[in-house]
Amino acid sequence: MAYSVVEVARALNLECEYVPGRDKGLMLRKKWDQYLRDRLVALIDETGASVVTFDGVVPYPGIVAAKFQRPHINLVWIRRGMWQKKPQGVLLGLQSKLMDYVIEPGDVASPADTGPTKDRKEALVVEPVTLYR
User: Fold this and answer.
1) Strand, helix or coil at 59?
2) pTM beyond 0.90, yes or no
3) 67 contacts 43 by C-beta, under 8 angstroms
4) Which of 4, 29, 71, 130 has the highest CB neighbour number within 10 Å of its CB?
């Protein structure tokens, strides 16, 4: 998530927190996953959250690890459709089973989708998500 997304959420009076991505190179990947897990667990405890939502291509190990430490949390994956045909699709079933819910926003170009998420049944497909109409 880009920091600018936080600014949009705050403008809408939504509470949010920005965690710099592992691609920023601030720490090794394993250390970053531990940091993410610990930060999410702290946020769950601080806020009394009952749902953690991940909006991205593939859930990070730190997100799944937070679920193991706080099993009462409903873990929701807002999964993008239109995946490319790449090896990552092989793990799609396992990744989906680690979530409590999978939501896939529709896409205007969905009739052209030939990727590994196209015919999967575990996701609730919804209308495209947008702040503007």
Assistant:
1) coil
2) no
3) no
4) 29
Instruction: Give the residue among 106, 86, 88 at the shortest CA–CA distance from 96.
Output: 88
Hey, is 40 helix, strand or coil?
Answer: helix
Contacts of 31 (CB under 8 A, 6+ apart): none
For 5, 49, 51, 90, 101, the CA distances from 73, given in Å and listed in that order, are 24, 7, 5, 26, 11
Helix (H, G, I), strand (E, B) or coil at 56: strand
Question: Which residue in this structure is represented by tokens 């897990």?
Answer: 37
The per-residue pLDDT for 89 is 59
Q: Cα(78)–Cα(104) distance, rounded to whole angstroms?
A: 6
- Chain segment 37-49, per-residue pLDDT in tens: 999 999 999 999 9
Q: DSSP letters of 64-132?
A: HHHHHHSTTSEEEEEE-S---SSGGGGGHHHHHHTSSEEEEE--TTGGG--STTTT-SSEEEEPPP-S-
